[in-house]
Design brief:
- With about 425 residues, this protein is an alpha/beta fold.
- It has 2 domains: about 210 residues, Rossmann fold, CATH 3.40.50; about 210 residues, NAD(P)-binding Rossmann-like Domain (Rossmann fold, 3-Layer(aba) Sandwich).
- Helices cover about 40% and strands about 15% of the residues.
- The protein is built from 14 helices and 13 strands.
- The chain has an 8-stranded mixed sheet, sandwiched between helices. Strands 10-9-11-12-13 form a 5-stranded parallel sheet, with helices on one face.
- Helix 11 crosses helix 12.
- The radius of gyration is 24 Å and the shape is elongated.
């Protein structure tokens, strides 16, 4: 313990970050900005190649000064996991998706542990940041270490510290978001907390890894449940002829006891659509039915179907069947102004429309071409929003409300515009072809 803290104090500590995506790359930057050397690990050779040239492949992170760190050899991007032996601390930031049965898939964590295990050493700290169910850190890291003869908390240190990234949020960047840290032992918590304190303005220490794991699950389950509530209320309000967005604005004037959540075409991002299912899956082991959470999940996953049904209803009013109609999806990122498509509800909307026989197009400047996705096979290119093209469209659906898009121009040129994000609030009263969904 003294040795690793000594290295931390004299800034000779070397940090390793496994997974150089939306979580891992900003984390590298935090440690680099505070004088530590960082080795970045990823199995994607294309990413490693770009980073070695000083290029950042995530648009909202383009301001990271990766090139200067690479040029001075303070940042080493690599796919060679033998370099783990030169690190003193490893943060694991790999994906934890759901499988086709909506059950936790921690295969990336398992593969990472397998890759780093031959090169770990005493006086080292290993921190898992990937969102997962309570008990994962113990099961997948602590127990294998102890079986290998390490004394966790004495000669090697293990912690869980959940990532709290919000891509595109200009107010809260990585370093100023409080960092929750829970170690397997008190010594583990102390070591990991001091390491993170180098780059984070506030570190919140909790009693153990399971508390830290549950903290992240709670944060995103809270959001998922409340979004499900407002999505359900949106449907009720539309039936009643009430503007849910106006209702939310009015309710938000209450200075206590209310927090605004907003409806949409479904949940997106890596956290909110996934994390609650990690908890429901683990709860079954303890014979607990998480009915409230599972119901909210059902509501949120049903929203793309609702959007398609609403579009079909509007087309029917215009004497057009959904089958054979030309439908334009506006925005495929999971939220506005970022190039992140993980779990985007727009993907499911596109799939459902195609299943029902519609001819589907999309526009999103962040994605000139539809990227390859693990669970979806969509081969499309972004369409240009010209007046001529828009006039050929039977219905356009706003699924992501990017700030730079001129939605009024679209409203002037398409037969029908379906808005799931309230992007047309300022002008829709002037147009009879705009419908809320």
């Amino acid at each position: 313990m003294k040795e690793i803290l000594k290295k931390l104090n004299d800034k000779s500590l070397v940090v390793g970050v496994v997974g150089l995506g939306y979580v891992g790359l900003p984390l590298c930057d935090v440690f680099l900005k505070n004088g530590l050397r960082v080795v970045g690990f990823d199995i994607d050779k294309e990413k490693i190649g770009m980073l070695r040239k000083g290029k950042v492949y995530i648009k909202h992170l383009r301001n990271l000064d990766i090139k200067s760190y690479v040029d001075t050899k303070r940042f080493i991007p690599t796919d060679d996991f033998s370099r783990v032996k030169m690190t003193d601390h490893i943060s694991i930031c790999v994906p934890t998706p759901l499988n086709k049965n909506r059950e936790p898939d921690i295969s990336f964590i398992k593969e990472t542990v397998k890759s780093i295990f031959p090169y770990i050493h005493k006086n080292m700290c290993i921190s898992l940041e990937s969102t997962t169910y309570p008990g994962t850190t113990i099961e997948e890291i602590v127990i294998p270490l102890e079986k290998a003869g390490y004394k966790v908390g004495r000669d090697i240190f293990v912690a869980f510290s959940p990532e709290r990234e919000d891509p595109g949020n200009k107010k809260f960047h990585t370093a100023i978001i409080p960092k929750v840290v829970g170690g397997h032992t008190k010594n583990c918590t102390e070591v990991a907390s001091k390491i993170y304190s180098v780059g984070f303005s506030k570190v919140v220490s909790v009693s153990d890894t399971r508390v830290a794991e549950m903290t992240k699950i709670l944060e995103n389950t809270y959001r998922g449940v409340n979004i499900a509530l407002v999505n359900e209320l949106k449907i009720v309000c539309q039936k009643m002829g009430i503007d849910i967005w106006e209702v939310i604005r009015a309710a938000s004037t209450k200075p206590f006891g209310f927090q605004a959540f907003y409806p949409g075409p479904g949940l997106g991002g890596h956290c909110i659509p996934i994390d609650p299912f990690y908890l429901t899956w683990k709860a079954r082991e303890f014979e607990v039915a998480t009915r409230f959470i599972e119901l909210s999940g059902e509501i949120n996953t049903s929203m793309p179907y609702y959007v398609v049904e609403k579009t079909a209803e509007v087309l029917n009013m215009h004497k057009k069947p959904l089958k054979g109609s030309r439908i334009l999806i506006l925005g495929v990122a999971y939220k506005k102004d970022i190039d992140d498509m993980r779990e985007s509800p727009a993907i499911r909307v596109i799939e459902i429309l195609k299943e029902k026989g519609a001819e589907v197009f999309y526009h999103d400047d962040f994605f000139p071409k539809f990227p390859k996705l693990r669970a979806h096979k969509i081969n499309m290119k972004s369409s240009r929003l010209t007046a001529e093209f828009l006039k050929t469209i039977d219905a356009a659906i706003i699924t992501t409300d990017h700030s730079h898009v001129d939605y009024e121009f679209i409203a002037k040129n398409v037969a029908v515009l379906v808005d799931t994000r309230n992007a047309t609030e300022k002008f829709r009263h002037r147009y009879r072809n705009i419908f809320m969904a």
